[in-house]
Amino acid sequence: MKMSLRTQLLLIFTTVIVLIIGAVSLVTVALTNDHFDKYVTQRNSTTLVTIRQQIALSYVNNHDQWQAKQLREIRNTGYRAGVLVTIYAPDGRILMRPTAKQQQSVSTGFDRKHTESIRIQGKVVANAVFSGYDPLGYGRHDVEYVSELKTSLITIAVITFMVTIVIAWWLAGRLTAPIKRVVAFTGKVATGNYQQPLPANTRITEIITLLESVNALSGQLNRQQETREQLSSDIAHELRTPLTMLQGTLEAMIDGVWEISTERLQNMDEEVIRLTHLIKNIELIASIETDADQLHKARFDIGAMVDAVTQNFQAKLEAKQQRITVATRKIMMYGDEEKLRQVLLNLLTNASKFSDFGATIQVRLMQESANAVIQVIDSGIGIDAKELVHIFDHFYMADPARSSRNGGQGIGLAMVKTIVAAHGGAVKVDSQLMKGSTFTVKLPIQGGDDHR
């Protein structure tokens, strides 16, 4: 049978409360009865001894005679102690008996009697019969006291139970309220509403962790959704122009407007190759942005990686008679070496494209605290300040005309940012028009949040 978490918690609390109150009540009653029994037994024994002594003293003080007044006082003393006292002479004559009123008020069903002989110098001068309540047990006042005590304990137990049930109901509500919000929130997430984060207005560590995890999941889903939407828009925009051009060229050749030539076919083939390369890069960015586990991390020397990439890149600089200077050091880090090679290669390609003939590109690797820092510095055309905020966006080109002439697609720097962010790092650019640019990549040596 299904039941809410609050109901289950309340049942658990109620069971525990009943067991605790029941156990405490039983132990309290048992201890009270035990100690009170000992007290009553000791008190009654003292009472009987006192009455016997009074009877003996009454006989001795009156020169072996009995005085009715003193016997009545002894009878009343016993009555006040809850005991009926009847005194017999040795020959069986009744010297003193309880009054009818005393018998009626004290006798409530106990028929036990206790007889003791009163001896003076070994001679029996009287026999005392203690009756009514058990002379070794509870008296009338004792029974009333115990009854009131038990009633008080029951009342306290009932009140405690009711109060604790109310507290348990409130506490169960406090515990389940954040979980109910999580349920409602995940319902919204299931329908595609990722915008509003769930506030962690609770002090319970586990629930705070749950809320943070749900918010992180929602944020990741939101980023994936935004990535898909942005990529869909960018891809549609980026593919529309070349596909339209290819379609127009093919239609012109089919209609005989243009002659089919090797040059035109080569141009179309180059455009298809460019589009294929673009699609592969888009797939790579999308896979990394939506799932950082696409990275294959291991420990490697990033200094050796920088040396290898820059050395291999030297050949591409010869066409523009450019050169590269490198300053590195050995730094062991945890990351995806191949993806970081792509980062450096994209930055070098970007620097070479927008630098003049004979320019020098500088590459530096240093360690700052727990981060490896790569800098790629060029003396090219630079970037306008208003363009800097968009420079890492998908398909964004600060100088579209020049980028097109250089074969740019506006995706290289977006790939750089995506790969660096997946490593828990950051990339920034400092640039001025006609004064060059400095791209700085900062990477956690231990792999950032993804370190395992």
| The CATH superfamily title of the largest domain | Histidine kinase-like ATPase, C-terminal domain
Straight-line N-to-C gap: 42 Å
The biggest sheet, with number of strands, parallel, antiparallel or mixed sense and barrel status, is: 5 strands, mixed
**Could you say how many structural domains there are in total?**
4
Question: Considering DSSP H and I runs of 4 or more, what fraction of the residues is helical?
Answer: 55-70%
Description:
With 452 residues, the protein is an alpha+beta fold. The protein is built from 10 helices and 11 strands. The longest helix has 57 residues, at 5-61. 57% of the residues lie in helices and 16% in strands. Strands 6-8-9-11-10 form a 5-stranded mixed beta sheet, with helices on one face. Strands 2-1-4-3 form a 4-stranded antiparallel beta sheet. It folds into 4 domains: 5-145, Beta-Lactamase (2-Layer Sandwich), CATH 3.30.450; 190-220, no CATH class; 222-290, Orthogonal Bundle (Helix Hairpins), CATH 1.10.287; 296-450, Heat Shock Protein 90 (2-Layer Sandwich), CATH 3.30.565.10.
Give a brief outline of the structure:
The chain has 452 residues and is an alpha+beta fold. The protein contains 10 helices and 11 strands. The protein has 4 domains: 5-145, Beta-Lactamase; 190-220, no CATH class; 222-290, Orthogonal Bundle (Helix Hairpins), CATH 1.10.287; 296-450, Histidine kinase-like ATPase, C-terminal domain (Heat Shock Protein 90, 2-Layer Sandwich).
